Amino acid sequence: MTAFDPTIPPTASTEVEFISLTHLNPSTELEPIPARGIDLDYFRRYVAALEEGGYDYTLLPYGSSSADSFVTAAAVGTLTERIRPIVALRPNTTFPTVGAQKLATLDQLTEGRAVVHLISGGSDAEQARQGDFLPKDRRYARTSEYIDILRRAWTEPAPFGHAGEFYRFEGFGPGFAPYDSPIPISIGGQSDEAFAVGGAKADIFSFWGEPLADLRGEIDRVHAIARAAGRTTLPRIWVTFRPIVARTDELAWAKAHDYVAKIAATFEKSAYRAQVHRTGTPQNKGSQRALAFAEASELYDRALWTRTAAVTNAAGASTALVGSPETVAAAILDYVDQGASLVSIRGYDTLADAVDYGRHILPLVRQELAHRKATGQRGPLQAEHVGNYGSEYREYATAGPR
Asked: What is the pLDDT of residues 319-342, one digit of tens each?
């Protein structure tokens, strides 16, 4: 067993915020329900659960066959008083001055709660569905130009023009202003281009859950690029997990193996949404990276399980944290120690998991962070669970339910 070190790493944050993803209907990877639309009652209950559970943000996803993220974000803003809606936006779908106007409108309506997550596009096939045939290696260059126009549209006091590689206009503005301050811009991705743009220009850089040491290297890379660009405020780090939680670690591992069998069956039948990574090697670097981790090992660190990524061909954020509430909370804090200050947790049993996380995970993490802030040291949550690296947990992970 590793000796417990009460020292808080210099990269750790005492201010951590939680993100979920808003689901529009009860269809899940565990139990797909044929539907393309919005179940309004379910949507309202889901958003209410996030507000009651103490989440800080919710991501409104975007796809060529999904609901419009601006409209759903506005609905979230109307249905909540505190949750910050994150609009997933592809630069190919909305001209930047129009995007700036729409985001500022959302920010005004929600009194400063809007956030945007720019998706440059990881699949040529998905981009082509909406008429975007720009090569993948140029899509981040377009995103970089998009960011510059967004920020200028929100702050320029006089009309201006722009003539760039991807966008051209004359005499725009002054644009419609955000509620109070510029809207935070998030970037994600694992390509060199993603790091270059995100490090130099993003307020937030997003990662999927991966082994601690590997994530630490990626965070260092983003921050080095930011410093080289002359930035004094470094991008915040957002990391995403799909926790599988039960009362004890052993029960959680039994649940995890049951879940992964159902998820595998769903994906084999392509029964859950349009799976762009069903077969073959995914085009995007993030999925390739997730699959490489899954091939090397099923279990990393305290509780990171990769089999869920393996059976879905890493179609989106799919790595799990498995264990009791205490184990999963301690695992989240391990990532906080590496520099994450935005933690996205969304489950496979979507609404039930959102409720459970709000009741059992968020309070434990916040209790530990409050202890750190008050004392300058780690609390008992980390000390009691440092032994979860031991062999008995690996036995649960690899052997399945007993």
From this structure: 999 999 999 999 999 999 999 999
Task: Report the length, in residues, of the chain.
Answer: 402
Q: What angle do CA 220, 335, 222 make, to 5 degrees?
A: 20
Q: Is residue 252 part of a domain?
A: no
What is the count of structural domains for the chain? 1
Check: CB of residue 364 under 8 Å from CB of residue 326: yes
Q: Residue 342: phi, psi to the nearest 5?
A: -125, 120
The strand pairing partners of 206, in sequence order, are 188, 238
pTM above 0.85, yes or no: yes
Q: Which residues, in sequence order, are bridge partners of residue 18?
A: 343
Which H helix or E strand runs over 46? helix 40-53
Q: Which residues of the chain have pLDDT under 50?
A: 1-3, 271-277, 385-393, 401-402
- Whether 81 contacts 149, CB under 8 Å: no
Asked whether residue 216 is domain-assigned, the answer is: yes
Structural domain boundaries, residue 120: 17-242+323-376
DSSP character for 94? S
Residue 168 is assigned to a structural domain of this protein? yes
Residue with the two structure tokens 């039960």: 246
Report how far residue 11's alpha carbon sits from residue 18's, in angstroms, rounded to the nearest whole number. 18
What is the CATH classification number for the domain harbouring 190? 3.20.20.30
What is the DSSP pairing of strand 299-300 with strand 342-345?
A: unpaired
Indicate whether 177 belongs to any domain.
Answer: yes
The pLDDT tens digits for 297-314 are: 999 999 999 999 999 998
If we measure between CA atoms, which residue out of 159, 212, 200 comes closest to residue 321? 212
Quote the CA–CA distance of 272 and 248 in Å, as a whole number. 29
Angle at 300 between CA 362 and CA 55, to 5 degrees: 15
Peptide bond into 174 cis (omega under 30): yes
Report the distance separating Cα 174 and Cα 397, nearest Å: 57
Query: Which H or E run includes 88?
Result: strand 84-89
Best CA proximity match to 307, nearest among 286, 321, 324: 321
* Alpha-carbon span 47 to 26, nearest angstrom: 13
Cα within 13 Å of Cα(144), Cβ side: 15
